[in-house]
Design a protein that fits this description.
CATH architecture of the largest domain: 3-Layer(aba) Sandwich
Strand order of the largest sheet: 4-10-9-8-7-5-6
Shape: globular
Number of domains: 2
Bound molecules: 4'-deoxy-4'-aminopyridoxal-5'-phosphate
Number of helices: 14
CATH superfamily of the largest domain: Type I PLP-dependent aspartate aminotransferase-like (Major domain)
Radius of gyration: 21 Å
Largest sheet: 7 strands, mixed
Order of helices and strands: HEEEHHEHEHEHEHEHEEHHHHEHEEEH
CATH topology of the largest domain: Aspartate Aminotransferase, domain 2
Length: 392
Amino acid sequence: MIGKTHKWLDKEVDLIKEKGLYRQLRTISPSGSSNKANVDGVEYLMASSNNYLGLAKDRRLVDTAIKTLKSYGVGSTGSRLTTGNTNLHKKLEKRIAAFKNDEAAIVFSSGYLANIGTLSSLAGKEDVILSDQLNHASIIDGCRLSHAKSIIYRHVDMEDLREKLIYSQHYKRKFIITDGVFSMDGNIAPLGEIKELAEKYGAYIIVDDAHSTGVLGKNGSGTADHLKVPVDVTVGTFSKAIGTQGGFVTGSRALINYLRNKARSFIFQTALPPSTIAATLKSIDIIESKLELQMELQQKVHLLRDELLEFGFDLRGGETPIFPIIIGNTNKTIDFSKRLEKEGIFAPAIRPPSVPKGESRIRLTIMATHTERDIQQISKAFYQVGKELEVI
Ligand code: PMP
């Protein structure tokens, strides 16, 4: 049996352990509030979730999901193209297109599947994809599946992108793909400059708006709106600020019609359960009607950012709720995270391959629902642990 008589699996895992990169699952149980996490039986203040607006446990979303579960059942029973396409799926697609100010939308079962489905069906053997060095893993995998030539340009380095576009002129179609907000660095892609280059060298722009949907732009509609730069294709997920689950793509009607017929991760995947779709619709209602949520989030982001910079942390990011605190050494980062737990804060260490070698970090994130006291607790804990481990 694989792994029992031949020990190569154990040996591979031992190698991962030697590099300090062994991954263990932590178990989350229900906890009292949306800002808390019960991890392996201990209650912590959550400081690393993608639930930026605190909507994942919102009563209104939960009630909507329960009501929908009672009428539609727990599973969707089939792919969107067979038995899984409910009126709610169609309604959400209309809604997300309007939310993103685009002609049409298609809902996938996750953001990961949306990226691999889009890239693998849009780009082919004769094409080139120019991809930012720090793009999400699902983009990297989508590039691999596409059979197109993929070229990585240095992170947000527009001169490098220009050079690579010049050398890519002989490809049939050219695509530039970038995260709108970089998941591990928290900075915003320079879409204006990317657009200038795309127009000059004839390339399409695809933006992964996973971390900006609900956070940036008017009503939280994302990076393109925030920077006022229209793009060709937007990919996103409901699993971050929206607080639910699932992925989407928005763009022209022709694009969406094409993806519906070509994207294998759409065609062959069981549709999302209707309860999730209904909760997502509710979440978008709340986000669009309650602009204070984004403002509250921004205020907290600025407050904490200024403090952490004053303490002397090597802090990346910018206007987003993602605070990458670079520690560098992997073991020291793990120690930092363990010490934070002793202070009642849950913020796991992020290590390679999620981030480049030598850039292990704590990915602290802020939620709109964090109270001032929560922010103070976070700030105090980071200062204390930072001093103790000589990070600051
Ligand atoms: N793109 C980015 C930038 C992400 O951070 C993530 C999730 N970590 C995804 C795509 C994948 O989305 P999902 O979790 O919905 O599969």
